[in-house]
């Protein structure tokens, strides 16, 4: 790793960046996602969380914090919870629409069945009339 390169965190804090810098592997250069994480969660929390995660979890942590901080910046009041609530409401609306569609399909199938039965009965009646007409 290039020890002279300064990561996003060290560049902001104007500190020398070393190869042991915990932020460097994820944000070797200034990046908007890092700025969001720093603004919403602070670099101290990010470093603390990185210490508490395994190497396999670190990339997932970074991605989650970038997503959450981006959402929090867009909606400072509701943040990720607002996104969750919106998706729950959309899911509920889709379930209602699905139920209404199912009811409409059942109604149409009932009408089709009634029309088919009526059509069949008329056909039987016509066939009986033809038989009577030909035998008389
Ligand atoms: Zn650094």
Itemize the secondary structure elements and their pairings.
Blueprint: H1 8-13, H2 32-41, H3 43-52, H4 55-74, H5 79-135
The chain binds zinc ion.
Zinc ion binds next to helix 1.
Proportion of residues in helical segments: over 70%
Q: Give the CA-based shape.
A: rod-shaped
Rounded to an integer in angstroms, the radius of gyration calculated over CA atoms is: 34 Å
In DSSP terms (H or I, runs of 4 or more residues), the helix count works out at 5
Average of the residue pLDDT scores: 94
Sheet/helix structural class: mainly alpha
What small molecules does this complex bind? Answer: zinc ion
Largest β sheet strand count, sense and barrel closure: none
Order of helices and strands: HHHHH
Poorly predicted residue ranges: none
Number of domains: 2
Oligomer: single chain
How far is the first residue's CA from the last residue's CA? 106 Å
Number of strand elements? 0
Strand content: under 5%
Explain what this protein looks like in three dimensions.
The chain is an all-alpha fold and 136 residues long. The chain folds into two domains: 1-74, no CATH class; 80-136. It is 76% helix and 0% strand. The protein is built from five helices and no strands. Helix 2 packs across helix 3 and helix 2 packs across helix 4 (55-74). The longest helix has 57 residues, at 79-135. The radius of gyration is 34 Å and the shape is rod-shaped. It starts with 7 loop residues before the first helix and ends with a helix. 14% of the residues are buried. The mean pLDDT is 94. Zinc ion binds next to helix 1.
């Amino acid at each position: 790793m290039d020890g002279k390169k300064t990561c996003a965190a060290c560049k902001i804090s104007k500190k020398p960046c070393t190869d042991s810098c915990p932020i460097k592997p994820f944000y070797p250069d200034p990046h908007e996602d890092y700025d969001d994480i720093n603004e919403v969660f602070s670099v101290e929390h990010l470093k603390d969380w990185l210490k508490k995660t395994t190497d396999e979890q670190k990339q997932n942590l970074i991605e989650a914090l970038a997503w959450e901080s981006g959402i929090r910046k867009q909606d400072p009041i509701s943040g990720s919870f607002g996104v969750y609530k919106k998706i729950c409401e959309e899911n509920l609306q889709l379930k209602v629409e699905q139920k209404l569609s199912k009811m409409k399909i059942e109604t149409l199938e009932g009408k089709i069945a009634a029309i088919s039965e009526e059509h069949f009965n008329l056909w039987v009646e016509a066939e009986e009339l033809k038989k009577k007409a030909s035998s008389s």
